[in-house]
Write a structure and sequence with these properties.
Order of helices and strands of chain B: EEEEEEEEEEE
Largest interface: A-B, 25 and 24 residues
Oligomer: heterodimer
Strand content of chain A: over 45%
Distance between the termini of chain B: 37 Å
Distance between the termini of chain A: 38 Å
Number of strands of chain A: 10
Radius of gyration of chain B: 13 Å
Helix content of chain B: under 10%
Largest sheet of chain A: 5 strands, antiparallel
Number of strands of chain B: 11
Shape of chain B: globular
Radius of gyration of chain A: 13 Å
Number of helices of chain B: 0
Helix content of chain A: under 10%
Chain lengths: 108, 113
């Protein structure tokens, strides 16, 4: 089983819509999780850290479900600028592996 | 705001040549990483480095690859004899603590001809 698996998408949503997607992880010992966003041909940038059950930052909400070993990201009132690939990371020891990413396209 | 810087931004090389990619991590960070991303594919972990030694490496990081922290600021990735399939974007990242948030450089694009 891959360390991190994500809904690949693509999710194509209109402006103002809510979009949510999941990331499952295999290492039950992981204590911290991260969502990054990556724009085309750019470096990943941290969007949100998740250390306990969840985190909320403006229009973005991350939820952690330890029993089922997944984290989710929800984007409310989506903007055109939210179009990107969203990557999740579930660290294992010193290896921080990324999922393949979920592509979100917000259309006008 | 402190940032990770990488050089060169783009390098073109002939197959079989040695390449060194350079990174200057954020100054008070202790954990350093290299990742690569082949065009259109996922970001792949290569290696992590802490306390002047490799902490973890992936199966991609074979004998052709090496990392070094030659001084207090630079962190380098060397590819000894490049192959066509080494063409990718290479990202350096640093972190203030283990399993913490990664801060990435803008990447070095390597093209092997």
């Amino acid at each position: 089983r891959k360390e991190v698996e994500q809904d690949p998408g693509p999710f194509n949503v209109p402006e103002g819509a809510t979009v949510a997607f999941n990331c499952t992880y295999s290492n039950s010992a992981s204590q911290s999780f991260f969502w990054y966003r990556q724009d085309c041909r750019k470096e990943p940038k941290l969007l949100m850290s998740v250390y306990s059950s969840g985190n909320e930052d403006g229009r973005f909400t991350a939820q952690l479900n330890r029993a089922s070993q997944y984290i989710s990201l929800l984007i409310r009132d989506s903007k055109l600028s939210d179009s990107a690939t969203y990557l999740c990371v579930a660290p294992k020891d010193y290896k921080l592996s990324f999922g393949a990413g979920t592509t979100v396209t917000v259309r006008a | 705001e402190p940032e990770v810087t990488q050089t060169p931004s783009h390098q073109v090389t002939q197959m079989g040549q040695e390449v060194i990619l350079r990174c200057v991590p954020i100054s008070n960070h202790l954990y350093f990483y290299w990742y690569r991303q082949i065009l259109g594919q996922k970001v792949e972990f290569l290696v992590s480095f802490y306390n002047n030694e490799i902490s973890e490496k992936s199966e991609i990081f074979d004998d052709q690859f090496s990392v070094e922290r030659p001084d207090g600021s630079n962190f380098t990735l060397k590819i000894r004899s490049t192959k066509l399939e080494d063409s990718a974007m290479y990202f350096c990242a640093s972190s203030g603590f283990a399993t913490g948030e990664l801060f990435f450089g803008e990447g070095s694009r390597l093209t092997v001809l």
